Amino acid sequence: MLMRSATSAVVLTVAVLGGSLAARHAQEPAPGTTITGVRIVDGTGAPPRTGNVRFEHDRIVAVGDAGPREGDALVEGRGLVLAPGFIDIHNHSTNGLAEEPAAATQVSQGITTIVVGADGSSPWPIAGYLAERRAKPAALDALVMVGHATVRRRVMGDDYKRPARDDEIARMAALVDQGMTEGAIGLSSGLEYEVGSYSETKELVALAKAAARHGGFYMSHIRDEADRAFDAFREAIAIGEQARIPVQISHIKLGTVGVWHKSRDVVKMIEDAHARGVDVTADCYPYDAWHSTITVLVPNKQYDDPASVRKALDDVGGAANVMIDRDETHPDYEYRTLEAIARDKGVTPVDLFIQIVKDGGASVVGKSMVEDDIRTFYTQPWVMVASDGGIGLRHPRSAGTFPRVLAKFVREQHWLTLQEAVRKMTGAPAARLKLADRGTIAVGKRADLVLFDPETITDRSTFQDPFVLAEGVKRVFHAGVSVWPR
Ligand SMILES: [Zn+2]
Asked: What are residue 279's phi and psi, to 5 degrees?
């Protein structure tokens, strides 16, 4: 009896609320927003055209001449560009989103969708991660990959420093299958990293086949980005070919002196793969340097062996290409290159390196690419913009990638047209991710929109100050909700 009256009270409340909402709808037009007189760069690569874009709730309902409806919120778009929300296909905000759902460093660039779980390392289980995101919605959407190293560790435990046996590969494939069933969109690998580096190609093919059965793609930080990069590109393509899966090469680069200026050969290799019917694309961040600990320069870990250290410095083009960023033992070294410090002290850069490591190490910024190669990659239609950064990751790409491309490669250097740069940030990644509801501005698409000033948009983040927000992004809408500025 008591329960029954409680139930009817609930029904009554709903009925009253529903009634008042219906009454409001009858008096007012549907709530909408119209952005007026804006240059629309729609994400397809089509030239900009001027018009209005109107959305209701989370959907775009009109594009072109249609004026605002009565009661619409109006956004003045004159002098500005409206693009689809940017999609970052390689982002490391995996854990940062829980702590900072407003994601200021990301949305201030115009990013409204990110892909996490790159480089072979993903959250697990996938369903749990996605449930957490749903329970605590962020200012952008996060899609997730299954990490190869993640499933490898689950199957092999600490005994991973060897090729996997067939039964282990089968168990890993079952986990990939599980992750895809739970909502992952593909398989990622990080074959230069500790756990992934011990895998053989056949292991990756087997796992990629499991992802392919669900319509997923294979995304790889390839096995070598330095002197053996060409073998690594070849392997990534072979995995795509054998597993019949689309391939995304993460942060495509030629990272050492031995392969610098060979980007045209990489392009040829990938175009040959396209001609054979292999679906290979890539992404590239707009920076020529990495940020890490000084010891990563020496892959064989012989930090006190002069020959190994000399080879390491030669590989990045010399001690002038390594800048100390943070050194607690020697704060006077900070923001200076190894070459400059060594010259002042009258020692060789090799001896200086060995001493710094002995004294506790330092974080450094190292040259990883030459501009010629970055330009060759960026101007390929199959190369997208991605950050490889994310909330809290100490590299200027974390807060600057997308505005930097629009400032440097479009406005200043004219490598790309505005519409082509935007396509690399929107339509192209949406196609790779099979996101039919976003990536372009058209009626029926989700209202993920970024309004920016093409004359002033720029990155402000630096290696010294990596989290300074970019400038020039005026408004960002995520599923029709204004998320920037806050
Ligand atoms: Zn990576």
From this structure: -90, 95
- The rounded distance, in Å, linking the Cα atoms of 237 and 269 is 9
pLDDT computed for residue 30 by the predictor:
54
- What integer pLDDT is reported at residue 23 of this predicted model? 42
Q: What is the pLDDT of residue 13?
A: 33
Give the pLDDT of residue 299. 83
DSSP assignment letter at 453: -
* pLDDT less than 70: residues of the chain: 1-30
Preceding amide of 299 cis, omega within 30: no
Ligand 1 centroid, distance to 247 Cα (angstroms): 15
pLDDT at residue 292 in the model:
84
CA Rg value for the chain: 25
217 C-alpha vs ligand 1 centroid, how far in Å?
16
382 Cα to the center of ligand 1, angstroms: 18
CA of residue 78 to ligand 1 center, whole Å: 39
**To which residue do tokens 């059965």 refer?**
213
Question: What is the C-alpha separation between 92 and 115, in angstroms, rounded?
Answer: 8
List, for residues 304-351, the tens digit of each pLDDT value. Answer: 999 999 999 999 999 999 999 999 999 999 999 999 999 999 999 999
Contacts (Cβ under 8 Å, ≥6 apart) of 185:
115, 143, 144, 145, 216, 217, 433, 434
Q: Is the dihedral of CA 427, 433, 434, 436 positive or negative?
A: negative
Cα(119) to centroid of ligand 1, in Å?
5
Task: Provide the 3-class DSSP secondary structure of residue 456.
Answer: coil
Locus of tokens 């970024």: 450
Say how many Å lie between the CA of residue 309 and the centre of ligand 1. Answer: 23
Q: Residue 478 corresponds to which tokens in the numbers above? A: 């995520």
Ligand 1 centre distance from Cα of residue 188 (Å): 10
Tokens matching residue 49: 């055209």
The alpha carbon of 407 and the centre of ligand 1 are apart by a number of angstroms equal to 24
* CB distance 365 to 289 below 8 Å: yes
**Exposed / middle / buried, residue 352 (Cβ in 10 Å: 0-12, 13-18, 19+):** buried
Task: Report which residue type is found at 100.
Answer: E
Q: In one letter, which amino acid is 426?
A: T
Measure 96 CA to ligand 1 centroid, in angstroms: 17
428 and 384 in contact (C-beta within 8 Å)? yes
